[in-house]
Design a protein that fits this description.
Blueprint (H helix, E strand, L loop, with lengths): L5 H11 L3 E5 L3 H14 L3 E6 H7 L1 H13 L5 E8 L2 H10 L3 E4 L6 H18 L3 E6 L4 E3 L2 E3 L9 H11 L3 E4 L17 H12 L7 E3 L7 H9 L2 E6 L1 H17 L6 H23 L6
Parallel strand pairs: 1-2, 1-10, 2-3, 3-4, 4-5, 5-8, 9-10
Antiparallel strand pairs: 6-7
Helix pairs in contact: 2-4, 2-11, 5-6, 7-8, 10-11
The structure holds 1,3-dihydroxyacetonephosphate.
Length: about 290
């Protein structure tokens, strides 16, 4: 039960009106910190790796570490490939053992987005119990290799969402609703909560069929996050905040302990910093105690 795809834990989350925290990692220490915190909170978990860290460490290495950690964990854990713009790389990660694959063809024209998403869905479903995430509309900001300017970002049309979900066959769906990757420039970013609610109503009004994903978690207030969950968000992505926690905690330790050469001590500080961020989000999203 510990190794799961995203859809299965999100179905439960959507029905239980909470969201599963989906945390981006770039190395082993971060992955361990995320897993240990979710275990301590008894929360279901999605570990996310974007394309660059997946390529740097290698999909097989990441998947092997994930499986080792997840197999002995008393909580369900999914390993998700985040924002791959390549169908081939999705397939490679699916072969390696990732359990949720995101094909981000949102910058392609509509028909091409459906075609690429369908190809990943068909491939992953033929391998077994894997789920696939697709995106419609574009999320502004920078997430790894995917860069969308603010004036280029487009919100997801609820009517088109129905057609997209049906024809692509996606298992979980990320509609662009005004949240953004990276750090928000204002405390109250313009997020279209009603649009998310409408999409959720159309897709899931008669029972949850396609759980919804919220991108761009970093910097959103607790109130925003709670409202997004209320409107149907069942997976909540946090990436930038974890990168800041990693770099700031390492830098802080190293500047204060310039004469120390014990990498294990840096790892401890990093783990604590990551754990603090992850634990706070799990509480906000309401997933503590749900595993
Ligand atoms: P942030 O970097 O804004 O937290 O966004 C995370 C995300 O949506 C990853 O897909």
């Amino acid at each position: 039960m510990s190794i799961v795809n995203a859809r299965e834990i999100m179905l439960e989350a959507a029905e239980g009106k909470y969201a599963v925290g989906a945390f981006n990692i770039t190395n082993l220490i971060q992955m361990e910190a995320v897993v240990e915190t979710a275990i301590a909170k008894k929360a279901p978990l999605i570990i996310q790796a974007s394309v660059t860290p997946s390529k740097f460490l290698g999909p097989k290495v990441i998947a092997a570490i994930y499986r080792t950690l997840a197999e002995s964990a008393p909580i369900p854990i999914c390993l998700h490939l985040d924002h791959s713009t390549s169908v081939e790389f999705c397939k490679e990660c699916a072969d390696a053992g990732y359990t949720n694959l995101m094909i981000d063809a949102s910058k392609q024209d509509y028909e091409e987005n459906i075609r690429q998403t369908r190809e990943v869905v068909d491939y992953c479903h033929s391998l077994g119990n894997l789920s696939v995430e697709g995106e419609l509309g574009t999320v502004s900001g920078v997430e790894d290799q995917v860069i969308v300017a603010e004036d280029e970002a487009q919100l997801c049309s609820p009517e088109q969402a129905v057609d997209f979900v049906e024809r692509s066959g996606v298992d979980i769906f990320a509609p662009a609703i005004g949240t953004a990757h990276g750090v928000y420039k204002t405390k109250n970013p313009k997020v279209d909560f009603e649009r998310l609610g409408k999409i959720n109503q159309i897709l899931n009004g008669n029972g949850v069929k396609i759980p919804l994903v919220v991108h761009g978690g970093t910097g959103l207030s607790k109130e925003y996050a709670i409202k997004l969950v209320e409107m149907g968000g069942a997976k909540f992505n946090v990436s930038t905040e974890l990168k800041y926690a990693l770099i700031d905690s390492s830098y802080g330790y190293m500047t204060e302990n310039r004469d120390q050469y014990n990498p294990g001590k840096v790892d401890i500080v990093v783990k604590e910093a990551i754990s603090k961020v992850v634990g706070r989000w799990i509480d906000v999203l309401g997933s503590a105690g749900k595993a």
